[in-house]
Amino acid sequence: MKETSEKSVAMYGIVSASKIIGETVVNRQSENVGKIDELVIDAKKNRIMYAVLSFGGFMGMGSKLFALPWEAFEFSATENKLILNVDKEKLKAAPGFEKGDKWPDFNDNIWGESIYNYYDYTPPWKS
Fold this sequence. Notes:
Strand content: 25-35%
Low-confidence stretches: 1-10
Radius of gyration: 14 Å
Shape: globular
Strand order of the largest sheet: 5-6-1-2-3-4-7
Number of strands: 7
Largest sheet: 7 strands, mixed
Helix content: 10-25%
Distance between the termini: 14 Å
């Protein structure tokens, strides 16, 4: 897991969710991997659990959604972009869901643990 740089924290500070939703996401190779479609929060623990990334498709049609641990992202220090610390090929093979389908149960710790493990992060409820 990569720590967010002090420069990016200083640039962004506290940000509203509406600023993050719709934000472009790139990987470490500066390849566009999608946009943030939604943020999922744990209101009891006051933390963001997942960012839902839309990836693939053309002009929003046929794109797949992926719930990723919030820790997998960092803010770019130079542009209005989020950087995803996940390889594009790993993302292509990741478990996802369609926008119009039933979304996963984000309260299901077994499902959540499988997502965190897939991306090599520790679920917050296990730390």
